[in-house]
């Protein structure tokens, strides 16, 4: 009897941990979740720190007055569409080119691809800067307030130097990520972000530049960021094989780069532009300074939340592409499901912070009692959109990994511009909801986009994709997968 009792107790001790592990795995694969979070967290920190450079300037000049707040937030939104969306999209080609070359041990090609992408980004920076010189007539043509348009245009002109630094910076960051260098990025983003607080405060309040001090400080801090990362790539020994100096060979890969960069940029810009259209629509409403500020603050808050999810999106894209490249589509789908669960958890936490902490958050942007009161009423709608955006952010990363960017372009076009924005116009201008109606329409578009992407990932065929149209055997084969590499932390 005693032996029997001991045997039963041993069996219970052995099976309980197994049952517990099995129970937890039904909810979330802890091992896979840890793997993704270890990759995502440094990216999240880096992205937030870089974004804080532009956000801090907007916050500081916003306290100069309601007109300055409206102009700065509108300018920052314009920067998000024309600079962030375009440059992040264009640099996305390096995920494929540098990642595939690094996995194939063609290390010298990484530096060539980086230079090719920088050339493309530099050309687009010139085009965008010309557009920025005509910001005021463009905004007036879009029926924005003359005063707000003039203020926003002034902000953009002093932000032009920072545009060129930002375009090169985005490519260098991709260059590092494809080599699984993540932890150093936190250091190189924290230094300029911390320094920027002092620079921006000094330029806005002590230099006499006042409003113009915000964009001037942003440009200076972006150049500091670009120089820091650039020197790291040039002089760190770990890149002696992947960066071998400047080469004219990079011009041979401009077209190959563009074939990957343009669809990715279009995918991002269509989505981000939809948010900015709401800002423009808010400028057509009565009391445009208040409505423009509110919608712009909501859009910037949504972007801040998305920056947190972006790390998971990048991790999901990497994991899915790695598994597809290894011929393991089921493991790729499993990685996506883990990413989705983590994104929902993070999005839900951020939504709760907005619902219960909106009073603290809005004080970072404005001290106006009117704006504080109105923001409290739109906070629940903002929380819903953040949760939806969290899910679609990971799904977009999966789409990039699977090579479905062209399909995603049509999805974004249909859900935002044929569903979301028309509903926004109807609810915003034909009902008493006004700016709330604008945001409800956006929620409808996000819901349709998220649902469509879920169906796409559910029913589409998950296979490795060859994006190379070159039949020359000497040309590298460009595929949307990379070898799984360990994360460097040194």
TrEMBL record:
The organism's superkingdom is given as Eukaryota
So where does this one cross the membrane? 37-65, 77-98, 110-132, 152-169, 181-204, 216-236, 257-283, 342-363, 375-395, 407-429, 435-456
| Keywords, comma-separated and alphabetical | Membrane, Transmembrane, Transmembrane helix
Q: What topology does it adopt in the membrane?
A: Multi-pass membrane protein
The secretion signal range is none
Under what name is this protein listed? Answer: Protein DETOXIFICATION
Q: Name one GO cellular component term.
A: membrane
Q: Gene symbol?
A: 25487323
Family label:
Belongs to the multi antimicrobial extrusion (MATE) (TC 2.A.66.1) family.
> What is any one GO biological process for this UniProt entry?
xenobiotic detoxification by transmembrane export across the plasma membrane
What GO terms are given for molecular function? antiporter activity; transmembrane transporter activity; xenobiotic transmembrane transporter activity
Q: What is its main location?
A: membrane
Q: Which CDD domains match?
A: MATE_eukaryotic
PANTHER family membership:
MULTIDRUG RESISTANCE PROTEIN
Source organism of the structure = Medicago truncatula
Q: Report the subcellular localization.
A: Membrane
Is Membrane given among the entry's keywords?
yes
């Amino acid at each position: 009897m005693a032996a029997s009792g001991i045997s039963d107790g041993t069996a219970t001790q052995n099976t309980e941990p197994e049952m517990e592990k099995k129970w937890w795995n039904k909810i979330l694969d802890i091992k896979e979740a840890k793997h993704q979070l270890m990759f995502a967290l440094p990216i999240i920190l880096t992205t937030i720190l870089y974004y804080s450079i532009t956000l801090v300037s907007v916050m500081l000049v916003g306290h100069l007055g309601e007109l300055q707040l409206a102009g700065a937030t509108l300018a920052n939104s314009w920067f998000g569409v024309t600079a962030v969306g375009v440059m992040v999209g264009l640099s996305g080609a390096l995920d494929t080119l540098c990642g595939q070359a690094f996995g194939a041990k063609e290390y010298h090609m990484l530096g060539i691809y980086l230079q090719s992408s920088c050339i493309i980004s530099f050309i687009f920076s010139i085009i965008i800067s010309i557009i920025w010189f005509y910001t005021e007539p463009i905004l007036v043509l879009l029926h924005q307030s003359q005063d707000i348009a003039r203020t926003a245009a002034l902000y953009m002109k002093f932000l032009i130097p920072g545009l060129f630094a930002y375009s090169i910076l985005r490519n260098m960051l991709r260059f590092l990520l494809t080599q699984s260098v993540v932890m150093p990025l936190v250091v190189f983003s924290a230094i300029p972000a911390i320094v920027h607080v002092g620079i921006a405060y000094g330029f806005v309040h002590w230099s006499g530049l006042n409003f113009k001090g915000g964009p001037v400080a942003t440009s200076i801090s972006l150049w500091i960021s670009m120089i820091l990362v650039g020197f790291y790539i040039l002089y760190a020994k770990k890149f002696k094989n992947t960066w071998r100096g400047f080469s004219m060979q990079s011009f041979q890969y401009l077209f190959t780069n563009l074939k990957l960069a343009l669809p990715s940029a279009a995918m991002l810009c269509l989505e981000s532009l939809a948010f900015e259209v709401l800002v423009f629509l808010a400028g057509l409403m009565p009391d445009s300074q208040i409505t423009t500020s509110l919608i712009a603050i909501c859009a910037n808050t949504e972007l801040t939340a998305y920056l947190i999810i972006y790390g998971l999106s990048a991790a999901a894209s990497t994991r899915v592409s790695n598994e597809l490249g290894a011929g393991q589509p089921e493991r790729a789908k499993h990685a996506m499901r883990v990413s989705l669960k983590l994104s929902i958890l993070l999005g839900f936490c951020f939504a709760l912070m907005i619902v219960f902490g909106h009073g603290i958050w809005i004080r970072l942007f404005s001290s106006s009692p009117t704006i504080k009161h109105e923001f409290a009423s739109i906070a629940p709608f903002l929380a819903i959109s953040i949760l939806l955006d969290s899910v679609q952010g990971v799904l977009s990363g999966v789409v990039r990994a699977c090579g479905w960017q062209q399909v995603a372009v049509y999805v974004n076009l249909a859900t935002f511009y044929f569903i979301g924005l028309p509903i926004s116009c109807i609810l915003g201008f034909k009902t008493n909801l006004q700016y709330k109606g604008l945001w409800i329409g956006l929620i409808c578009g996000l819901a349709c986009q998220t649902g469509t992407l879920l169906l796409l990932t559910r029913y589409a065929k998950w296979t490795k994709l060859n994006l190379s149209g070159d039949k020359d055997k000497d040309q590298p084969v460009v595929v949307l997968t990379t070898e799984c590499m360990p994360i460097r932390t040194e």
